[in-house]
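Shift notes (night). Ran PAS sensor protein while the centrifuge was going.
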Amino acid sequence: MAIQPTNIEHPVTSVDIIVSKGNEAGDVTYANPIFFKLAGYTPGELLDRPHSIIRHPDMPKIIFKFLWDRLKNGQDVFAFVKNISKDGGFYWVLAHVRVANNPDGSFRNYVSTRRAMSANARKVIEPLYNQLKEAENIGGMSASFEILEAFIKESGGSFDTFNDTMKKIQNS
Ligand SMILES: Cc1cc2nc3c(=O)[nH]c(=O)nc-3n(C[C@H](O)[C@H](O)[C@H](O)COP(=O)(O)O)c2cc1C
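Came back to this:
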């Protein structure tokens, strides 16, 4: 059964570094204590389970599509993510997700390192994601893609420079 979202925000402090690793399917293979603490689950409840357990229903699909397209292409991605905790509360982060390879070049895992989202980024990203979500509800991911593309262009970037645009928003 899906968790009922609440408006309770779990604070992420500026020193928190929230780490998890995933296999090719996106299942959690490792996470650090602060990851479990914020998510509100024990390691036993999350390990070997999909990362989507903490997917917040407010998150637009297009962001995860973009994230996976980049990862499958061997590229890293910086993305703002709103996660849901076991108690229905939420927390916002700026995630840096990348592919880690073994010394022989074979796939090892995906690694996500998350930090607190800045207050300025929140002001920009929350309304954008609301717009993306609304567009998706009506016109699917092709509709939200257009809005995301227009936003990136207005921010002076392109999908190729997506990471820089997100970092600029974080530090604005
Ligand atoms: C290393 C790694 C970390 C991830 N972290 C999150 C996360 O914190 N929150 C989240 O909703 N999805 C995260 N994802 C993406 C999920 O795998 C999934 O694509 C997303 O939750 C959307 O769910 P869906 O694909 O079932 O729609 C992560 C994926 C990887 C590979």
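The chain has one domain: 18-170. Strands lie at 18-22, 28-31, 77-84, 90-101, 107-116.
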